[in-house]
Structure formats: C-alpha cells, structure tokens
Amino acid sequence: MDRNVNVYPSLCFPELYILKDGYKEFFQEFETFCEPRGYIQMHHKDYREELRSMRRKGRSVARYRRRKELFQTANGH
Questions:
Q1: DSSP-assigned letters across all residues of 28-43
Q2: Rounded to whole angstroms, how far apart are CA atoms 32 and 62?
Q3: 39 near 24, Cβ under 8 Å?
C-alpha cells in the first residue's frame, strides 16, 4: 500500500520484514529492538473494536481488488 501511495524512494516504510513466528516471538527474544517496549496481544479486550474495524477495511479492499481483477480479465486488459 505504501508503494501505491508514495513514489520510490520517498516511502513511509522503505524496508519491510516478515518475522518468522510473528512479532510476539520476536518481541519476547529481542525486546530491546522494539518500540514501544510494551507488548499488547492483538486480541486484547481494549482493542477489540479497532481490530474489527481493521478487518472490515481489509475485507473491503480485498473485494475491490477481486472485482477490479475480474473486470480487467473480462476486458482483456
């Protein structure tokens, strides 16, 4: 998404990493590299509504992309 909105090299996130076993495992082993230093689980009760909202947005984007791909395929572009 960053590359769709910004022109390289002016990116908000010029480097992205996929963490084996996820952020939770990384945080437990390398807390000093993490900012902020506190870890809150994704399903924490204080953030349930925010998680629901982000998931709804993600589904909307996925549906839009599928429709766009189907339209492009149907038109041969």
A1: HH-GGG-SSS----TT
A2: 35
A3: yes
Q: How many residues does the chain have?
A: 77
Q: How many CB atoms are closer than 10 A to CB 5?
A: 8
In angstroms, the CA 18 to CA 23 distance is: 9
CA atoms within 13 A on the CB side of 26: 11
User: 3-36 pLDDT, tens per residue?
Assistant: 788 887 788 887 888 888 988 899 999 999 888 8
Contact predicate 33/39, CB 8 Å: no
The pair of structure tokens assigned to 27 is 């945080």
